[in-house]
Write a structure and sequence with these properties.
This protein is of the alpha+beta class. It has helices at residues 89-99, 128-146, 152-166, 225-230, 238-258, 261-280, 291-307, 330-341; strands spanning 17-31, 36-37, 41-42, 46-64, 75-80, 83-84, 109-117, 178-181, 195-197, 210-214, 312-315, 321-325, 350-354, 360-363. It binds ligand DP6. Residues 29, 32-34, 40, 46, 126, 128, 167-169, 225-226, 229, 275, 316-317 line the site of ligand DP6.
Length: 364
Amino acid sequence: MTENDFVSSRYIENQIEGTVTWKSPSNIALVKYWGKKENQIPANPSISFTLYHCATTTTLAYVKRNKEQQQERFSFDLLFEGSPKPEFKPKIGKFFERVEKYIPFVKDYHFSIDTSNSFPHSSGIASSASGMSALALCLMSVEKALNEKITNDYFNQKASFLARLGSGSACRSIEGEMVVWGQNEDVKEASDLYGVKLSQEIHSVFKNYQDTILLVDKGQKQVSSTVGHDLMHGHPFAEMRFKQAETNLSKLIKILQNGDQKGFIELVESEALTLHAMMMTSLPYFILMKPHTLQIINKIWEYRSATGSNLCFTLDAGANVHLLYPENEKDTVLTFIKNELVAYCENGQYICDQIGLGAELIKN
Ligand code: DP6
């Protein structure tokens, strides 16, 4: 598929209004996307677990605009958790600009967007992946109402393509259980333009993997992901890092097939620390981990050497820690979290999640 395959041309004209609701999950990368080219093209391939509980639910109501009303390029209003949220509007306006070429109907309708997250507001959990994918799916449902011929495969692919234009990692939130984004040698169908579900059969130990998110710092991040990606331009280690991500993706796909949990732990933790090492070696440099992030990491390492557990951690672009572990360790790891790690969480908060199957159509 090329970009032109996602340009819509012919629509039926008589669709006046409608409403659709999608629930779309967040995802956590195992091999990280950090660094991009023009038009949201990733500098390296990445792979993620799709989450289950951490999700955004978005209802999109659309009604045809009168030609005379069309002084503004786009017309929409936005409710976030039931209240107007003017500070989110520029991001959505920019998203509409980026997707207009592919879904020209965006300027023909007025949209009312009503969105809410399953995770606590300002938990420090990035909502851009679940938020942008939920909105992209709603827009694809509008496209489907205007062109009934589109297939399910095309629907998902284009939803991922549109979500990517909103936020890169959002393209990995449409399907589950694992999604690859970015061209690479090992997953032939993978593309820089959209995420694809990992079709290789994965070993049973990685089925139903758990992700408990320790909320270390719920404050606003000092540096946004978008700024961080930008700092990879001219970064002294960028080229090596992009190659390393490709090699790690290849290794991880083998690990996922052969069930090598020790290999999984080493690769996933190394990816998390490399992501933060890139931030620390950017110019300007910055640190998103907090003292409690490091204390948790050290506790995990002690716990692992004392018990032989397969618990490991990963990080996104923030201070929170994702604890990844197999389902059969659920009880013991939760006891460890309660006894040893909750003390490092802001207000003792953490979220129990697990691998999920992707977005869900709630109402159409
Ligand atoms: C560290 O997808 O948030 O979570 O494309 O600028 O919206 P934009 O960036 P974003 O970056 C996510 C970076 C990451 C790693 C990952 O999810 O792969």
